[in-house]
Specification:
The chain has 471 residues and is α/β, with parallel strands linked by helices. The chain folds into three domains: 229 residues, Ribonuclease Z/Hydroxyacylglutathione hydrolase-like (Metallo-beta-lactamase, Chain A); 108 residues, Rhodanese-like domain (Oxidized Rhodanese, domain 1); 99 residues, Rhodanese-like domain (Oxidized Rhodanese, domain 1, 3-Layer(aba) Sandwich), CATH 3.40.250.10. It has 16 helices and 24 strands. It is globular, with a radius of gyration of 24 Å. The N and C termini lie far apart (49 Å). It holds the Pfam family Rhodanese. InterPro entries: Metallo-B-lactamas (IPR001279), Mito_Persulfide_Diox (IPR051682), POD-like_MBL-fold (IPR044528), Rhodanese-like_dom (IPR001763), Rhodanese-like_dom_sf (IPR036873), RibonucZ/Hydroxyglut_hydro (IPR036866).
Length: 471
């Protein structure tokens, strides 16, 4: 049996495609559905089903557009109540995809409708499990997301359900089954996922902390809930979109791919209050950018940081991109529900400069320069990495303000003394720098190459948490 994993690294997301005798099925598709349609066309196949493992929080699924464009039947697990035409399957129900079979296994815990799909090949042999966010490689799904949509679904209740689902529905299955999860390392849907994106169930039973056979339910709940970070603010909004429905990506693209001259761009920005989002890399942004714009580069975890740093999912957005990167930026915004892009700067930032429009710059230094500064002036160093990264190793005396918490800790950034920002590689620190510039800070710099470069110098670093860490 052939199962094709379609992995999107910037979201650490895996969709799956199967086909047998001209009949195809897609599991947990992303918002843009053309790749799935083209894949089926290559096989001269018709997409009969779109199987959803649950109502996703970290992305907007493409199930509705596949239903519209391919005539596919949308399938959710038991208990799902979508606000559009879809099949809510029964536990143990079997769907036929050509000579293949897909068996529904209800596995509540990550969410109450969470479902695992058992894949059975043409010979009746059980091949693998599409596990969604129930079981990852090295981890299991976090149980604290549904309570942001349904208040009485506490994380403790969901963790208890997940324990039962894993023990009673997943672990008794054959060890040679291949586990096909919805996410890999880097996703905010778990806390310690492996970089591997598939494994056998038997191996996971040996190495996955959550599948220890001697673990009690109380121990499981405690371990699962320990170390969970606050989920991104856009997660509940994506869940609602996946339950209630959304606008077609084609309509969004038609509206968003509107080119504006520098003069028109400035007028639209002023009249609409749209956020100017610059998606160039940090180095180019630092050399020149439109005043009050925010930098989140397409060359990193773009959609995730948009979701973290732009609180209003309905915020109107104007884009500054490299040439021919407009559609990519719009698509990646819509993957996480930011559907209100109203246009882009024609000709990019060069056209803005060419029109003699005002622009700003942001100071950057290399790690060697920081080494000299620390030796002579002992500047305040602010580390915007995650707390776990900071706790592992950090510049002695640096304080920690994680990027996703910057808006809650603006008072920690002084305006009466210079300071230095850094992250791991320079991507996040420039996001922070652009936000601070927008809010009126000027006397600071950030470190090119971040802590990766700092660690190659003789700057003193510590592997314990110093008392100036900000929580």
């Amino acid at each position: 049996m052939k199962v094709e994993q379609i992995y999107t690294g910037c979201l650490a997301h895996a969709a799956y495609y199967i086909e047998s005798k001209g009949v195809a099925a897609v599991f947990d598709p992303l918002r843009e559905v053309q790749p799935y349609l083209e894949r089926a066309k290559k096989d001269n196949a018709k997409i009969k089903y779109v199987f959803e493992t649950h109502f996703h929080a970290d992305f907007v699924s493409g199930h509705l557009d596949l239903q519209k464009k391919a005539g596919a039947e949308i399938v959710f697990g038991p208990g799902a109540k979508p606000a559009y035409k879809a099949t809510t399957a029964r536990d143990n129900q079997i769907f036929e995809v050509g000579d293949y079979k897909v068996k529904v296994i209800h596995t509540p815990g990550h969410t109450m409708e969470s479902t695992t799909y058992l894949l059975i090949d043409e010979n009746g042999k059980e091949h693998g499990l599409i596990t969604g966010d129930t079981l990852f490689i090295g981890d299991v799904g976090r149980p604290d997301l549904a309570q942001h949509v349904v208040a009485d679904l506490t994380e403790e209740k969901l963790a208890a359900h997940l324990y039962d689902s894993l023990r009673n529905r997943i672990m008794p299955l054959n060890d040679d089954l291949i586990v096909y999860p919805n996410h890999g390392a880097g996703s905010a849907c778990g806390k310690m996922m492996s970089k591997e994106t598939t494994d056998t169930l038997g191996h996971q039973k040996k190495v996955n902390y959550a599948l220890r056979p001697d673990m009690t339910k109380e121990e499981f709940i405690k371990e699962l809930l320990t170390g969970l970070t606050t989920p991104p603010g856009y997660f509940p909004k994506n869940v609602i979109m996946n339950i209630q429905g959304y606008e077609s990506l084609d309509q969004i693209m038609d509206r968003a791919t509107t080119p504006y001259s520098p003069e028109a761009f400035e007028t639209v920005a002023n009249e609409t209050g749209a956020l100017v989002l610059d998606t160039r890399n940090a180095e180019d942004f630092a050399k020149g950018f439109i005043p009050n714009s925010i930098n989140i580069g397409l060359d990193g975890s773009f959609a995730q940081w948009v979701g973290e740093m732009i609180p209003d999912i309905k915020q109107e957005i104007l884009l500054v991109t490299y040439k021919d990167k407009e559609e990519e930026a719009i698509t990646r915004l819509s993957r996480v529900g930011y559907d209100n892009t109203v246009g882009f700067l024609k000709g990019g930032f060069d056209s803005w400069k060419g029109a003699n429009k005002a622009y700003e710059t942001s100071d950057r230094i290399d790690a060697t320069t920081l080494e000299n500064l620390i030796a002579t002036k002992k500047p305040l160093v602010i580390d915007v990495r995650k707390k776990s990264e900071y706790d592992s190793e950090h510049v002695i005396g640096a304080i920690n303000v994680p990027l996703n918490e910057i808006n809650q800790h603006l008072a920690q950034f002084p305006k009466d003394q210079p300071f230095v920002l850094h992250c791991a590689g320079g991507y996040r620190s420039m996001i922070a720098a652009s936000i601070l510039k927008q809010r009126g800070w000027q006397d600071f710099t950030d470190v090119k190459g971040g802590f990766d470069a700092i660690s190659k110098t003789s700057i003193p670093v510590s592997d314990y948490v110093c008392p100036t860490t900000l929580l």
